[in-house]
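INFO batch 0412 | record 1 of 1 | parsing
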Amino acid sequence: MTPSAFDYVRPASLSEAITALARHGDTARLLAGGHSLLPMMKLRIAAPEVLIDINELSELRGVSVGKSEVVIGAATTHAALEHHTEVAAALPLIPAVAHQIADATVRNRGTIGGSLAHADPSADWPAAMLALDAVIDVTGARGSRSIAARDFFKGLFETDLQPGEVIVAIRVPVVAGSRTAYRKFRHPASGYAVVGVAVRLTFERGRCSGGRIGVTGFADHAFRAERAEALLAGHAGQADRTERLLDVAFADAAPLEDRFADAEYRLQLARTMLRRALADVLSSDKTR
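INFO prediction complete | emitting tokens
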């Protein structure tokens, strides 16, 4: 199918994009990578009257790697993050997750900001951003603000973004003594996560002092398994403690059901992905 007719706007700056959003209101959609929006338009699930193309805005591109923080422009592609050696050294979870997104074509065009704004319940980046305690910087006609990843994802394709706001950058802290892993069960057709689990554990003197667990694909939006996080301090892979973690990690979320995975199957996948991600972290000797 072909999409409904629409007007195309290509602003020369971020301020022009914000002005265009304010002018067109609910009839407009931002176009970043387009790999989620354009198929929805072809199926007439989405029918914006105006597309505002922000792909080439220099203000939204680029990566800055500092000692305490990595700042990623919203229009940075998955492929750029997959192959960024400085990011890999500071935050190895980011290229590890980028590598597992869809296929090379999607990774070369899709953007991290577009993925986060779209908030597909099975997207990979939300789990990583939750596990890494990322902060999402946004701006709009009413000004700029920062949103913690844990507060960003609200529901099915729903975020804390307000009308007229644009994701500008993602700021990710570099936490000393941390190890990370991402495990997902990949949908064989789409490459999305049927369930994906990102884990970050922090170690002090060789002992786990705590961590974060981000989950995607399981519920109607990505979430942190906070009850399981409370059990991470002192965890060293003990079988009984692992089972307790698995028992509480998904207890507060209603699992999605579809033709590929019913609720029971999805819960078992989630437990398996968390078990494997924890094992990956605990067996790793790469502490940062």
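INFO post-check: The CA atoms of residues 127 and 214 lie 4 Å apart.
INFO record closed
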